[in-house]
């Protein structure tokens, strides 16, 4: 599939997503967050769901966690953010109640309802490596109940695509941010990805 075809197919799914009412999250969203990036990306990042800033802007990873993810991509991997693809398991923001006060991970019902969109994104983009960020996306992609602390830094597999689980940037920020040993762990995981891809910084 060439880049134009991929782009067209992704846009068509994005249009479906924007009208989707398959789970309760549609009732509280400002807008859907489909994901963004290069349709031909070699690396696809998958988080759990949009947060407040993402819900307001319609873009994935644009708050503080987004800034950290962008640094990981641009400084750690040495490529522009636009060269990878960034998506979430759910395309609408999960919050603890209907007041939009606090984020939470997507529940099982929401994950089941929304994941077909993600699976279609993966199929079209066909990345060389998937990096899952945090528990919900790692557990969904690797079909496990194991926690991220045990899974990070070890290669998994999703239908032949190597999967590297690592911590969600929000978790790193909540646990010390730049000074956190978790950040060093993320860099280590990224190095494994670079080695796998044969990219220069490895
Ligand atoms: S989270 Fe996914 S399944 Fe639920 S309403 Fe939004 S787009 Fe539809």
From TrEMBL:
Organism (species): Leptospira fluminis
Keywords tagged on the record: 4Fe-4S, DNA damage, DNA repair, Hydrolase, Iron, Iron-sulfur, Metal-binding
CDD domains: UDG-F4_TTUDGA_SPO1dp_like (cd10030)
GO MF annotation: an example: metal ion binding
Entry keyword Lipid metabolism: no
Catalytic activity: Hydrolyzes single-stranded DNA or mismatched double-stranded DNA and polynucleotides, releasing free uracil
Family the UniProt entry places it in: Belongs to the uracil-DNA glycosylase (UDG) superfamily. Type 4 (UDGa) family.
Domain Uracil-DNA glycosylase-like: 34-191
EC number(s) from the headed UniProt entry: 3.2.2.27
Domain of life: Bacteria
GO BP: DNA repair
Protein name per Swiss-Prot or TrEMBL: Type-4 uracil-DNA glycosylase
Pfam families: UDG
NCBIfam families named among the record's database cross-references: UDG_fam4
